[in-house]
Q: What sequence folds into this?
């Protein structure tokens, strides 16, 4: 009903405009179609603008697809030029822009390009037909995102200048228009949709603004598009505020085919879009009015109650009153009231019961201030304060210490301290601050020479302290020194022997014993009486790996720990092999277990090939030579360790070594080849060949190997007897005993078994001499 009413009112206004215009200018109110000429000029007579124009931002969006014939394209130009006659074009009036589209969008001129109607008309005449596709949706998107931006001439939204888009099309769009047209309308663009010919009415409705009766138009062909001139004249010239019952409380502002309500200055529009509410400035500002605050269109003013007048400060009120008599007796202020006066107090005070004197208001009295340190009563409130050296935090209640040293500019050499007023430099104990207040110098308590120290002295933080040289200790007088034998003065805990050093002591064990891990107790060597020349042949190939190589080094040191390493006891040498053979240390190089173990720990992993045969050759030809420390008539033993197949033959040099009297123990781990181990090891295999599946099981075979080596090594006395009885010979073969004659591994090194072993060795040597087994003369070495 409302839509029909608005339409009727619009038509009535249009009719009124027609009746009011001069009859001689009827053709101007109903412009005739202008026929396009071949030279594209448009002979249009000047038309006096009969409109009550309002400023607009007006953009024409013209379909320039191939379906529009050249003659029809000229009619569209004529329609635009005739429509321009009803617009007042200018920078501060209506701004006009135009774009045409086919398969692409081609802007012809923006809202800021031209400021006169003649310039716009000439630009329309100069338009050239694109004759491509119909991308209407793309054109609407460009209109919304570019044409109506302030950068391209659109005025800011807060100026409420209506934004009008007039879209002229003759066919179905090749893209979607519903969503982008809705976005454009939501962005405040009022869209008029004009369809020519076989255009789908639903498409036009999807483009145009509501109500569709005012914004959507369809004509049969381009010859009839001129019939819309009078329709748009009515829309552009009519004042909707005069036609419709707008119900705006203050001001109605017209736009083509629409209107909006506006409020007078000092008022704001309510959510209903029609009524207005005064801006209550007095409620949002600290006006300070003593009596009344009155809202004004541009602010507020203070007013007084009847009988009062505004004072010079324009906030407080006063009147000629009884206070002028001078006998009011008010301590602070006298205020006139009708027919009398009252006493008032200054801010921060309260009137006493006598009605004249005042007492200071103590805002802190109730104890609710919450101040961390101190507080102070002011006129208005209780204010928190901080003690000297502290500052109030943003919460207005708690305090934080002021750190004068935080900026790092103190320049203190050693230490600094934050005080209440500043950052103060300090020196560490034993130092004193220089006169510059920043640097420090050491206090020399010994400088005066009064210390009387017998040997040495040292300045400390507090005093001059006497000291003694190494091997001496300070007497109780703190000045003189006495010789220090810690073994006599401390509870050293050594099981066998305590040996004093310069500033400490060490524990030592008797011969045949070794120091335990605790560094104090002693344990008997597993082969404390055994004598041999032992050479380790260690595999250092890449298949072993660095971690396992460390385990092999531990294995070697474990064997060394079980031996009596000394000049007259067992000697140890070691060579490592990979692609090449390297002698780590010879038999004659070290004579203590500690030096040997240190050399083992220093070994570097070679990590390349596995030439076991070459290692056996080197062991046979060099390691047991007198040049490298091998001794006469001392049993020769070699422990060969490998974890895989050799890259050369092992049989030849292993056989030569064994035939020369070298006892070989073969130790294989992991992928070691059993046949190779048998070729390397001395016979019988069960006594000289050991194998472990992995390195975790090496501990088991290490224990067995220690026991076997210990059982197979001659006693020192036996070796000495052999040397005395056969000085011209050296043992060339290992001495083996039957299992029936041999005690168990656990009892092998007990005294009675060692004696039995010595007797058996003596008998064995006699047998070997008789059988001519001792072959090698001393002079052959």
A:
């Amino acid at each position: 009903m409302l839509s029909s009413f608005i339409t009727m009112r619009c038509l009535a206004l249009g009719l009124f405009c027609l009746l009011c215009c001069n009859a001689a200018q009827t053709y101007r109110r109903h412009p005739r179609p202008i026929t396009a000429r071949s030279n594209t000029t448009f002979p249009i007579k000047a038309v006096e603008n009969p409109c009550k124009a309002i400023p607009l931002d007006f953009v024409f969006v013209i379909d320039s697809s191939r379906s529009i014939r050249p003659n029809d394209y000229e009619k569209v130009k004529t329609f635009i030029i005739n429509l321009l006659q009803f617009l007042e074009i200018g920078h501060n009036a209506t701004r006009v822009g135009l774009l045409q589209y086919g398969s692409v969008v081609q802007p012809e001129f923006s809202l800021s390009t031209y400021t006169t109607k003649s310039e716009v008309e000439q630009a329309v005449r100069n338009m050239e037909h694109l004759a491509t596709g119909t991308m209407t949706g793309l054109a609407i998107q460009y209109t919304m995102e570019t044409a109506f931006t302030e950068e391209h001439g659109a005025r800011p939204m807060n100026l409420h200048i209506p934004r009008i888009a007039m879209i002229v099309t003759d066919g179905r769009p090749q893209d979607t228009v519903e969503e982008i047209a809705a976005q454009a309308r939501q962005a405040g663009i009022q869209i008029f949709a004009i369809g020519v010919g076989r255009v789908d009415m639903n498409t036009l409705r999807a483009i145009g603004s509501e109500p569709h009766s005012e914004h959507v138009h369809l004509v049969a062909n381009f010859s009839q598009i001129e019939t819309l001139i009078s329709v748009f004249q009515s829309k552009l010239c009519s004042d909707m505020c005069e036609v419709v019952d707008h119900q705006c409380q203050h001001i109605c502002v017209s736009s083509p085919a629409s209107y909006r309500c506006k409020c007078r200055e000092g008022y704001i529009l309510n959510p209903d879009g029609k009524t207005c509410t005064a801006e209550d400035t007095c409620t949002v500002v600290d006006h300070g009015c003593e009596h009344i605050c009155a809202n004004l269109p541009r602010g507020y003013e203070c007013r007084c109650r009847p009988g009062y007048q505004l004072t010079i400060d324009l906030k407080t009120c006063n009147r000629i009153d009884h206070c002028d008599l001078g006998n009011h007796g008010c301590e602070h202020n006298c205020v006139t009231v009708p027919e009398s006066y009252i006493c008032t107090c200054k801010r921060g005070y309260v009137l006493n019961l006598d009605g004249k004197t005042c007492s200071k208001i103590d805002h802190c009295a109730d104890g609710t201030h919450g101040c961390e340190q101190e507080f102070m009563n002011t006129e208005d409130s209780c204010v928190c304060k901080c003690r000297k050296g502290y500052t109030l935090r943003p919460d207005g209640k708690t305090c934080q210490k002021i750190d004068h040293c935080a900026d790092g500019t103190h320049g203190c050499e050693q230490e600094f301290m934050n005080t209440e007023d500043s950052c103060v430099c300090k020196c560490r104990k034993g130092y004193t601050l220089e006169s510059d207040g920043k640097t420090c110098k050491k206090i020399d308590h010994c400088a005066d020479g009064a210390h009387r120290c017998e040997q040495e002295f040292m300045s400390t933080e507090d005093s001059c302290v006497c000291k003694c040289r190494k091997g001496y200790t300070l007497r109780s007088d703190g000045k003189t020194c006495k010789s220090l034998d810690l073994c006599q003065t401390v509870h050293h805990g050594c099981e066998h022997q305590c040996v004093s050093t310069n500033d400490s002591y060490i524990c030592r064990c008797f011969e045949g014993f070794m120091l335990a891990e605790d560094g104090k107790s002693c344990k008997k060597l597993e082969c404390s009486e055994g004598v041999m020349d032992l050479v380790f042949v260690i595999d250092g190939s890449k298949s072993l790996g660095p971690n396992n190589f460390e385990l092999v080094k531990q294995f070697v040191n474990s064997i060394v720990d079980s031996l009596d390493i000394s000049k007259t006891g067992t000697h140890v040498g070691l060579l490592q092999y990979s692609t090449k053979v390297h002698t780590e240390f010879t038999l004659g190089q070290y004579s203590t277990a500690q030096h040997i173990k240190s050399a083992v720990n220093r070994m570097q992993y070679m990590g390349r090939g596995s030439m076991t045969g070459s290692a056996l050759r080197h062991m046979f030809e060099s390691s047991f030579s007198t040049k490298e420390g091998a001794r006469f008539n001392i049993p020769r033993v070699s422990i060969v360790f490998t974890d895989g197949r050799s890259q050369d033959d092992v049989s030849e040099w292993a056989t030569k070594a064994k035939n020369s009297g070298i006892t070989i123990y073969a130790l294989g781990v992991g992928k070691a080849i059993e046949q190779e181990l048998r070729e390397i090891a001395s016979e019988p295999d069960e006594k000289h060949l050991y194998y472990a599946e992995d390195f975790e099981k090496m501990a088991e075979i290490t224990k067995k190997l220690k026991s076997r080596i210990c059982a197979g090594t001659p006693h020192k006395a036996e070796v000495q007897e052999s040397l005395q009885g056969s000085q011209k010979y050296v043992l060339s073969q290992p001495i083996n005993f039957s299992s029936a004659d041999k005690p168990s591994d656990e009892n092998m090194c007990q005294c009675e078994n060692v004696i039995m072993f010595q007797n058996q060795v003596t008998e064995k040597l006699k047998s070997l001499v008789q059988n001519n087994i001792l072959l090698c003369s001393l002079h052959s070495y």
About this structure: The CA atoms of residues 12 and 243 lie 9 Å apart. The first helix runs from residue 2 to 20. The mean pLDDT is 81.
